[in-house]
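Researcher: Next entry in the queue.
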Amino acid sequence: MAIADTSEITLAELQLSGRNHSIPLEALRHDITPIGLHYLLTHFDIPYVDAASWRLEVGGLVERPVSLSLDDLRARPAVEVAVTMECAGNGRAHIEPHVFSQPWLLEAVGTARWRGVSVASVLEDAGVRDGAIEALFTGLDRGIDGGEEQVYERSLPLDELLRGDALLAYEVNGQPLPPQHGYPLRLVVPGWYGMTSVKWLSRITVREEPFDGYQMRHAYRVRYEEDEPGLPITTMAPRSLMVPPGIPEFRSRERLVQAGACEIVGRAWSGGAEVVGVDVSVDGGETWAPAELGDASLGRWAWRSWRFSWNAEPGEHELCCRARDAAGNEQPLEPSWNLGGYLNNAVQRVGVTVSA
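Model: Structure for this entry, 356 residues:
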C-alpha cells in the first residue's frame, strides 16, 4: 500500500504525530498490548487531575443525581473486559488526495484489559427518567477544534449504553489509568472507534434531545463536501494486520526474508460482528488463501489471532491480509477518500524481498 507523498505532510502534522503514537506492528504478537505500546490520541492537553478532589457528576434527566468519588466507584461491583480499540482515522496517510490531520499509517490500535464499573449500572441507580434518549460524556480536556473552544465531549444513545458492555474504567492492564489514558476515569465503549471512549471523565448528563456539540455535529463524520452533515462514525469496520515477517531496513522499513518456510501471524477484529475469517495473499492480492484463525478466548470485544504458512521463494513479493466478519463485511482492496480521512480499512500491503 503506497503512502501519500511525504512532501504533503506538514510541520503541524509532524507535531501531532509527536504527541500521539501507534503500536509497533511487531507488538501484535502480544494478546494484550503492553500499555506503553497501545496507540494513543490526545485531542487537546493532558489535564492534571487531583484524584482526591475529583468527582464524577451524574445528572440531567435522572431521578437521583449523584456525585461519585473514585473510592465510591471502586466500591461498586467491578467488571473487566478485554477491548480492541482503534482510531477512526487509522490508515489516513494512505489515502489520496492528502487529508490534513494526525497522519496515521495502519497502527492506531491496541488491545487492553479495562477494569471499572458498568455504565448501565450507574445510570440505573441514578434512575433514568421517561423521555431520555442519550447520555453525554464530558471530559476535562479543553481546547479549540474547528475554530470552536470546547471541552471534549460526546454522546451515546441510551439503548446502546443500557444493553451494551460500556464501562467507566479506572484501571488498565491491572494498574491505575496512566495520565495519558484518562486518569482517573474514562469511558470505554467496546466495538466502537476510540473517539467514543471519552477520557478524563468528569460528568455524565442524561438528555432528552441529541447533543449538538462540535465532536458530534462536525467531527468524526464521513463527509465529502464541507457543507454536508455527513454520516456519524460508530462501530469499527473489519481489519486485519500482520506482523511484517523477516527483518527491516532501518529507514525504509522494507523487509528481508530468508527463503523457505515462513510463518506469517497477525490479528483481526471488527466492531459490528465477530471476525469469521482472514485471507492472505503473497502476490499483491491476485490470489488468496485462508489463514488459520485463532480462538476467541479474549472475548467478543478483543481481536483474534491468525497464522499463515508461506513457502517463501526468492524474489520480490507483496503480502496482503484481509478480514471478514459474520455480517458479511470484508476489507476492500483499495482505500476510499472522504474529507476527514476516516474509515480506511483497505487491506494491509507489506513488500518483502526474499533472499536465497
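Model: Residues 1-6 have pLDDT under 50 and may be disordered.
Researcher: Noted, moving on.
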